[in-house]
Design a protein that fits this description.
Aminopeptidase, alpha+beta, 39% helix, Peptidase_M28, transmembrane helix, Immunoglobulin-like, Peptidase M28-like protein, M28_fam
Length: 805
């Protein structure tokens, strides 16, 4: 016999259906535990990579310990043009040749195809290793990672760990033989950090390489977590091949949708634009150990390297066995792994049909239950709960930043001190807010479930319009809620079988939802903290609704003043706890790595030590001066090395102090005019010999606008036009690893004089002794020599290119 809940008795007690409150509470406990286990299993599976294998693993297996052992020979800042960069390239060639592979170095010059000033160009040297000698009749799988770094990072994770993974995977497969129609290319690519220049040279593949069957691009955007498929292009077949060896695969089209919103990219974009089927595989937890001083070998997670290597080996093995990797996908395809065990694909029309069915179901159930007014009230309370959770998530970091003097949270060893606690407290506040609001709801249990299903359906519709690849996520909540309400109200067998099925479906759906959200949020903790709080409140609301629905436990009670106060104060209390914990945290240790540079301006005859830090720490204060003022560095700082907009580059610039000894005999860059005819200006630039980068930009006299450049070329190659990614308001170029002389040509909108500035960025401190030999810099600054946080930038005199005669 189907049972229905009794009306509230007005005493504040729990009203239950036939069978007694004890059985109802026991059932609620069982369902609650089941759903919490689903959350834990789903999220945990995406937070913890598989265990790493040590160097005792069989030679036929991938070993993270062996890979990390090889990483020690790679770690160190290696921007293009530096001595370390050249040293690592030679080491990689030697290692791959020792495996018996066919190795070649692909040299070239490329420009950042995205366009926009400051334009980026550079000389690159890709290290390529073929399993079999390249041949036009072989289809080739490319496994790629980049070996360059940003100037301020040792690059142990980004992307040294993936380079090491490729070396270990190459060792395993080096004894295998490829079939006559297939080949594997291990590509260690240059220039990723300078505009994906090496990938552009790589895509100019000669015909003798054969057809490119697919590309596996290995990246690191953090220092841990599972190696996940963050996006793919025409390579859905790779999702199964990555797990062919039994390795769990983490993949979701939701991350693909999110990546489309972010300005940062990987070499994936170059491969995609060239039409190569490509998979972007990356681990991205703990992003604070990424592209900075803390990206050291101590912060490499062997489990992440193991997960990446196992999937790489599985894909290569499947490829050599004849597997089909390239596979097209319909626009907006929703795909996700089912807890690492299988792969699900939902085309956009299927998502739309499911959304339509959910809408029809909601309308029919609302009519049957006569719950229009109750649905509106319950939905409003749920919206308030989700909004309150989002406000908490959005307010935490700014408030903490105000309390801690501008830093979001004190930094220690590259981690936000207490960041896990802050995240947990924010998420717990979301849970508390959702549960308390549902406890205050006077709506019947099916109505609360319908209201939540309706909100999730609205979210699905919004995502179908804005981010279709993520539209499946809210449906994971809507579907089990509607199944439960429909079965409870309309179908027989609810008492036992219906409840079991509803609880099981809800557990699976919540596990999938938790897995996807955990995978995404760990990569963008600080960026998406408000989203994380909202999603946590959503999961808490879904669990509360399912428990109340399946266990027949009413959650509505008369609003009492203490509980009403607690409800209203839940978000505020969460913020207070977060801030108290933050204030009790230990201060950041000192000294801490600094972004220290010396700018030698030959036009003014002055030099200045500067740092981009918010305040001078122990390592920088004696260089910039303890009383250094925060100011714009646009007057002496070219755009290229830091890639920040002119006029907005702010740092602490101190008084002119002793220049580094290494600059004493350095001549500045020079400019030689070659042609001035009409609106054309052609000139040659020679930088400081051995400099790792050359920067050239138009100088502006006073407040007037810079001369408009309609077309430009570098050594005869046209510069791609486009909007500036950095807000730079004039024509500028950064040339990484430049030759001795570079010829530029500008076409101006008007025949006007042009004033040029040129800067050479010298080698890192280890090679030049820029910091080590400076008497004005304290001995503690020698810690900088392990990572080049000190650059010497030599800026030229002003060069006038006059109007054409």
């Amino acid at each position: 016999m189907r049972t229905r809940s009794l009306p509230d008795d007005g005493t504040g007690g729990i009203s239950t259906a036939t069978g007694g409150s004890s059985r109802s509470i026991a059932a609620a406990g069982i369902v609650l535990v089941l759903l919490l286990l689903a959350v834990g299993f789903g999220a945990g599976q995406k937070l913890l990579p598989p265990p790493a294998k040590d160097d005792n693993a069989a030679a036929s297996e991938f070993s993270a310990e062996r890979a990390i052992g090889g990483l020690r020979d790679i770690v160190g800042p290696r921007p293009p043009g530096s001595a370390k960069h050249e040293e690592v390239r030679a080491h990689l060639v030697e290692e791959l040749e020792a495996l018996g592979l066919t190795v070649q170095v692909q040299d070239g010059v490329a420009m950042d195809s995205s366009g926009g000033t400051p334009y980026r160009v550079g000389s690159v040297h890709n290290v390529l290793a073929f399993l079999e000698p390249p041949a036009a009749d072989r289809e080739t799988l490319v496994v790629a990672a980049h070996y360059d770094t940003v100037p301020s990072s040792p690059g142990a994770n980004d992307d040294g760990s993936q380079v090491a993974a490729i070396l270990e995977a190459a060792r395993v497969v080096s004894t295998a033989s490829a079939p006559d129609d297939r080949n594997v290319l291990f590509a260690l690519v240059d220039g990723e950090e300078t505009g994906h220049l090496g990938a552009q040279v790589l895509t100019d593949a000669p015909p003798e390489w054969g057809e490119i069957g697919a590309v596996l691009n290995l990246e690191s955007r953090g220092s841990g977590g599972p190696a996940a498929v963050i996006r793919q292009h025409e390579a859905l077949g790779a999702l199964g091949a990555l797990g062919a060896g039994g390795t769990p695969v983490a993949a979701t089209s939701a991350s693909e949708a999110l990546m489309s919103l972010l300005p940062a990219g990987t070499d994936f974009g170059v491969h995609q634009s060239h039409g190569w089927p490509t998979v972007d595989l990356a681990f991205f937890a703990r992003p604070l150990h990424y592209d900075n001083a803390y990206d050291t070998i101590d912060h490499v997670d062997p489990r992440s390297v193991q997960h990446s290597g196992d999937q790489t080996l599985s894909l290569v093995t499947a490829w050599l066995g004849g597997a089909t990797v390239a596979a097209g996908a319909s626009p907006g395809l929703n795909y996700f792994d089912v807890l690492g065990l299988a792969e699900a694909q939902l085309p956009l029309p299927v998502i739309a049909v499911l959304a339509l069915l959910c809408l029809v179901g909601i309308v029919l159930l609302v009519v049957r239950l006569r719950a229009g007014r109750g649905l509106l009230g319950a939905g409003t309370r749920l919206l308030v709960a989700l909004a309150a959770a989002g406000v908490v998530g959005a307010a935490v970091l700014p408030i903490v930043g105000l309390i801690t003097g501008g830093r979001p949270i004190p930094v220690s060893e590259g981690d936000f001190v207490g960041m896990p606690w802050i995240v947990l407290l924010v998420l717990a506040t979301g849970v508390a807010t959702a549960v308390l609001l549902q406890r205050r709801s006077r709506a019947d249990r099916p109505v609360v479930a319908l209201a939540l299903a309706c909100l999730c359906l609205l979210a699905t519709i919004v995502l179908l319009i804005l981010l279709p690849a993520a539209a499946y996520l809210p449906l994971l909540i809507s579907v089990p809620l509607l199944i439960g309400v429909a079965w409870r109200e309309c179908l027989p067998g609810w008492r036992v079988f219906g409840r079991i099925v509803t609880a099981a479906v809800a557990a699976l759906a919540i596990a999938l939802f938790s897995a996807t959200t955990a995978l995404i949020l760990q990569a963008f903790t600080t960026l998406l903290l408000p989203v994380g709080a909202v999603l946590t409140a959503l999961v808490a609301s879904a669990i509360t609704a399912i428990v109340g629905l399946v266990a027949d436990v009413r959650t509505d009670r008369p609003a009492r003043r203490p509980r009403a106060v607690l409800l209203a104060g839940a978000p505020v209390a969460g913020l207070v706890v977060v801030l108290v914990v933050t204030l009790l945290l230990p201060a950041a240790p000192s000294p801490a790595p600094s972004t220290l540079l010396y700018c030698d301006d030959r036009a003014s005859g002055e030099g200045v030590w500067a740092t981009l830090d918010r305040e001078p720490d122990d390592m920088a204060s004696e260089a910039v001066g303890a009383d250094a003022e925060r100011q714009s560095l646009g007057a002496c700082l070219p755009p290229g090395p830091l890639q920040l907009p002119h006029g907005e580059v702010e740092g602490l610039a101190g008084d002119a102090r002793d220049a580094p000894d290494a600059l004493a005999g350095v001549d500045p860059p020079t400019v030689q005019a070659l042609e001035s005819s009409g609106t054309t200006r052609r000139f040659a630039v020679s930088g400081v010999p051995g400099a790792r980068a050359l920067n050239l930009w138009l100088e502006v006299d006073g407040e007037g606008p810079a001369p408009e450049v309609t077309r430009s070329s570098i050594d005869g190659q046209p510069v791609p036009e486009g909007p500036s990614d950095w807000g730079w308001d004039r024509w500028a170029v950064t040339y990484h690893a430049p030759p001795e002389t570079v010829v530029f040509e500008l076409d101006l909108a008007e025949d006007v004089p042009v004033t040029l500035r040129v800067a050479s960025v010298l080698e890192d401190p280890d090679a030049t002794g820029i910091v080590r030999s400076a008497d004005s810099v304290p001995a503690s600054t020698n810690l900088l020599t392990s990572t080049p946080f000190a650059d010497a930038i030599v800026v030229s005199d002003l060069y006038e290119l006059e109007e054409a005669p």
